[in-house]
Design a protein that fits this description.
The protein is α/β, with parallel strands linked by helices and about 325 residues long. It has helices at about 50-60, 85-95, 105, 115-125, 130-145, 150, 160-175, 190-210, 220-225, 245-250, 255-260, 320-325, and strands at about 5-20, 25-35, 40-45, 65-75, 80, 95-100, 180-185, 210-215, 230-235, 235-245, 310-315, 315-320, 330. The longest helix has 18 residues, at about 190-210. It is globular. Adenosine-5'-triphosphate binds near residues 49, 50, 51 and 218.
Length: about 325
């Protein structure tokens, strides 16, 4: 395992809204978390909970209009990158923060060879060319364990196996030695073998480079295998975060508990999350109080009155649920 080091990314009270004809959609509504060097943070939650918009806000690629980052800070090594101008931000993307798609077919261009595709970011961000560029591309491919990389760089995507294509996408992701790698789950689910290969690849890359990974998924089972810490999102907010094993064994928010209970057992079909009754709320018309209240088995009067703040439940675990206040937990002072 790569050693977990100092904080490299700190997201503070991030708010990203979409102005739609139904009203203002608070897709990200006061999200705060940190990411450390060599650490994998999972962001988990149902479809529409704001996972992708959170990471698109970090790299400032939210489609605008209709989207606007209306508040908060994104500190990369202490610098608020929300304040950078677009040309400075272009240097951050790909160079310091890379995004990789889990589906290698949509991430690679069929008409360019592997040398061109892996080399492109190195050309743009590092100014490499000629022999140095080629050597660096071969080195990247070796790092992601492509056999005979000197030969394979002339291949086109269709000449590689699915697993190798994924490795190439991984090589592109880490080509500029980013501090942060964001891996967002595709909407269509990958087959189990490809997914397992992909998870192994991300771990290899982290081992090699110490990169901090933000890993987005619907599936708490994958989070449990893959991540050090987890942030659970519901209706644009992080409702629980902390150490994965601790949360898996002792969830402090009823929604987290439901997500964990919906992890499919080995022998079951992958019908994820079907055991959580009800639907996520419309984000332009949230109920007053806790957004999970209409689906929560533990709901009580106070839940309908006010949005629960984040309570510190100890050992780095935080949960936004009024039940924790009843037990005597205090409101988190750190904003997470
Ligand atoms: N371009 C847009 N215009 C309007 N609303 C948007 C737009 N993009 C996202 N949203 C809204 O923001 C909310 C969060 O979307 P987001 O894509 O972050 O969800 P997600 O958690 O990544 O879901 P999934 O698991 O399906 O990828 C959703 O309610 C979505 O409808
Ligand atoms: S605050 Fe109330 S409704 Fe919300 S999760 Fe906790 S118990 Fe359930
Ligand atoms: Mg998404």
């Amino acid at each position: 395992m790569a050693r977990i080091g100092e904080i490299i990314l700190e997201v503070k009270d991030l708010q990203t809204y979409f102005v739609t004809r139904w009203g203002v959609v608070k897709a990200v509504d006061g999200v705060s978390f940190v990411l450390r060097k060599g650490e994998t943070l999972g962001i988990v939650g149902e479809s529409g909970s704001g996972k992708s918009v959170t990471t698109l806000s970090i790299v400032r690629l939210v489609p605008s209009p209709p989207g606007h980052i209306v508040g908060g800070q994104v500190l990369l090594e202490g610098e608020d990158i929300l304040q950078l101008d677009e040309s400075e931000m272009e240097k951050v993307r790909g160079d310091k923060i890379a995004m990789v798609l889990q589906d290698p077919m949509t991430a690679l261009n069929p008409v360019f060879d592997i040398e061109d595709q892996v080399g492109e970011a190195l050309k743009i961000h590092k100014g490499l060319s000629g022999r140095t560029l080629k050597d660096q591309v071969v080195d990247m491919l070796r790092k992601v364990r492509i056999p005979a990389p000197e030969v394979r760089i002339k291949d086109y995507p269709h000449q590689l196996s699915g697993g190798m294509r994924q490795r190439v996408v991984g090589a592109i992701g880490i080509s500029c030695d980013p501090q942060v790698l964001i891996a967002d789950e595709p909407t269509t689910s990958l087959d189990a073998t490809i997914q397992a290969q992909y998870l192994r690849l991300l771990r290899d890359l982290q081992e090699e480079t110490g990169v901090g990974i933000i890993f987005i998924t619907h599936d708490f089972g994958i989070v449990a295998k893959m991540c050090d810490r987890v942030a659970v999102m519901y209706a644009g907010k992080i409702v629980e975060q902390g150490d994965v094993r601790q949360i898996f064994n002792n969830p402090s928010h009823p929604y987290t508990e439901a997500l964990i209970n919906s992890v499919p057992k080995m022998e079951e079909k992958m019908d994820r999350l079907y055991s959580i009754p009800g639907q996520p709320p419309a984000l332009w018309n949230l109920p007053q109080g806790c957004a999970f209240a209409p689906r929560c088995p533990n709901v009580f009067d106070k839940c309908h009155e006010a949005v629960p703040p984040s309570f510190d439940v100890g050992e780095g675990q935080f949960a936004a649920c009024w039940l924790r206040e009843k037990e005597g937990a205090s409101v988190s002072s750190s904003g997470v």
